[in-house]
Amino acid sequence: MGMACHPSGGLLATAGADRKVLVWDVDGGFCTHYFKGHKGVVSTVLFHPDPSKSLLFSGSDDTTVQVWNLITKKSVATLNGHHSTVTSVALSEDGGTLLSAGRDKVVMLWDLHDYSCKKTVLTYEALEAVCVIHSATPFASCLGPCNQQNGKKSGLQGIYFVTVGERGIVRIWNSGRAVCLFEQQSSDVTVSSDMDDSKRGFATAVMLPLDQGLLCVTVDQQLLVYSPIKLPEGILDLVLSKRLVGYNEEIVDMKFLGAEEQFLAVATNTEQVRVYDLASMSCNYVLAGHTETVLCVDTCVSSSGRTLIITGSKDKSVRLWDSESRRCLGVGVGHMGAVGAIAFSKKRQPFFVSGSSDRTLKMWSFDGLSDDVEQPINLKAKAVVAAHDKDINSLAISPDDRLLCSGSQDRTACVWELPGLLSKVVLKGHKRGIWSVEFSPVDRCAITASGDKTIKIWAISDGSCLKTFEGHTSSVLKASFITRGTQFVSCGADGLLKLWTVKSNECIATYDQHEDKVWALAVGKKTEMLATGGGDAVVNLWYDSTASDKEEAFQREEEGVLKGQELENAIVDADYTKAIQIAFQLRRPHKLFELFAKLCRKRDAENQIERALHSLSKEELRSLLAYLREWNTKPKLCHVAQFVLFRVFNMVTPTEIIEIKGIAELLEGLLPYSQRHFSRVDRLVRSTYLLDYTLTGMSVIEPEADTRKLEESSSLQSTMKAGELMLLPENADHDEQQPPEEGLKTKAASKKRKSDKHGDKSHKKIKGVAYTCIAAVS
Question: Which CDD domains match (predicted)?
Fold first, then answer.
């Protein structure tokens, strides 16, 4: 029901319907104090601005004000005096007086030294908020010195305070004399006709810091900011500097307003029309006068240069407004049903046309309307025609003011000649009611949007359908030409805004920014700006970004060319750290892989890769892991990926890796393929052991440990054979007597025996023997 923040900013007090007051630690998020003592709903809470006093005040609908001590956590005093709900409390500038306001139409001043009532000020209004005016604010300076002197003569130091309540007006009081110093002449609160008295006026108010004025909140969720000014007579006045609408309700229609289209007139599900300033999106002013919901709105600039607004409502009337004076200039009465469509002249002629649920069209004239009209005049209808068999939903006047097109729920659109409202052609072809009609700005054709989810373009001359556009998934509620009739935009009950090209019959863009039906679509004729609104109570502004998008694309392309050349220069200079950074900026994973592959073939690859990785930011490191995940899935690229991944995990700590956004998903993609690669490597290593065993058994390769023993044994055998030959001269003589051919045969036979003894030789060893033999023969 209420909240208050401690001056230190560390504590927050909340008031609830459970009759309790809780104090919370803002940093820790836990409850520090629990105050229970009220017998009703606690409506307001307030901390004492002096931190040394440690006091908390709370008001309730049990008509009491409780004073709590934050140190002892107990109630210090109970202030009785109100006869209704206490809605607001405030403290004087010196902190010695407490002001309490309630719905019993009084403001009571309490002395905080003895907790006694010093004075009661009658306001004759159920109050919702009271705010104290400090001496150094613009409000105090605008009150004038005379009020301050009169306050000192009363014997009680005057406290200036502001009250707001059910009447919807702001009043300023002096506690010394208990009189009202200022009262607004009229309320700025827009009151609906169906609202009861309990829902009128303000809900709360607060003084804004830094002398920004007084902020008042209405019951219909509007925020009004007032600024004080001093009139030449020395009298204080309040100016509404800003109006912020918290909730628009359902938006049914809107139109751009002004010669430069800097305002937007919005018709919501209320009796008022709100005019927004597009620069600040604050509600500039409100047009109030209709007694029931406004259904349609249109704007124009008259021949005299005045900006006019025309509205149609469920109260069966149309109203003509002047945007500068914000007054109603004329009222047209005559329809027997709700006015659901309205259209101004396109050539600044003094007439407009209205269509109603009574199935008739009326042409109204405001010729001869004077500028100094004090009371709305009665507008007269120049022509009336029974146009359709069902409700009329939309009207459009051609750019030359010669034709009028009307769309109805009877599934037809009719073209009429102006000013006599004579039927020219009937456009038939839709299967559901027509919600929107509009003439092309350049061609003799019209566009219609229907509940059958289609948009059609018609030839005015013979009423034939030229083109049909399909794409919406629900009823199309609005369609309007843009870019001199070459394109058009449409919106519908599916919450989508679509951009179409007439020549190609294609939807080139779809925008989804609404959560409900899009009832309203406004197109700026000069600014080419769009505005959409619908059932989600949201107004969206759209700008033509074609030129800016092309310029951005050209700049990106130019920057990419320069960066690409810089990348090639870095590769030529072997500056791999800079090259890797540029490759990340250009988002070229293939070039990045080539750089890492080159680094892996370097002798000091580890150091160079670490230098390159140290220069990466966290976002670039995340992109690198994403690239490594993709490279790791391909057998041809996995070796480089594993090498870089190993260096990343060696360089980056686990704490930093965990902080990377989306690291869990990246690791899930890396682990399975890494396990597969390592399993394949293990299988290959195990296979090499079998190969070594086989080759060793074939005496192709021999263990390194037995090499020296074999050499020693061979040399020993050769020495022993030489000794034997020396001891056996007969054998030597016998060998000498043998012819050379027999000697060769003997050597060959001995070689054959050796080969049989040692088994099959390898291909490599045989080739070596053959080469030796060839060398011997030569």
Answer: WD40 (cd00200)
Q: Quote helix, strand, coil % in the chain, to nearest 5.
A: 30, 40, 35
Span of 124-133, 335-344, 746-755 with lowest mean pLDDT = 746-755
Give the Cα separation of 523 and 447 in Å (integer): 15
CA distance 152 to 254: 54
Lowest mean pLDDT among 109-113, 227-231, 369-373, 657-661: 369-373
**Least confident stretch, 50-64, 228-242, 530-544:** 228-242
On the question of a common fold for 2-146+158-234 and 251-547, the answer reads yes
Residue 714: count of CB within 10 angstroms of its CB: 10
Q: Return the CATH fold of 2-146+158-234.
A: Methylamine Dehydrogenase; Chain H (2.130.10)
Residue 197 φ/ψ, nearest 5 degrees: -65, -30
pLDDT band at 155 (very low <50, low <70, confident <90, very high): very low
**Interatomic CA distance for residues 298 and 208, integer angstroms:** 37
Give the pairing of strands 327-333 and 377-378.
Answer: parallel
pTM score, whole prediction: 0.68
- Looking at the domain 251-547, which fold is it? Methylamine Dehydrogenase; Chain H (2.130.10)
Residue 519 CA to residue 607 CA, distance in Å, equals 64
* pLDDT of amino acid 496: 94
Q: Among candidates 262, 291, 293, 259, which has minimal Cα distance to 275? A: 262
Phi–psi pair at 692, nearest 5 degrees:
-60, -40
Percent of the chain with pLDDT over 70: 86
Instruction: Tell me which residue of 61, 66, 154, 172 sits closest to 110, measured CA to CA.
Output: 66
* Contact call for residues 509 and 483 (beta carbons, < 8 A): no
Whole-angstrom distance, CA of residue 509 vs CA of residue 497: 8
pLDDT for 644: 85
Please state the domain extents for the chain: 2-146+158-234, 251-547, 566-679
Closest CA to 544 of 516, 518, 567, 523: 523
How far from the centroid of its chain's Cα atoms is residue 591's Cα? Answer: 35
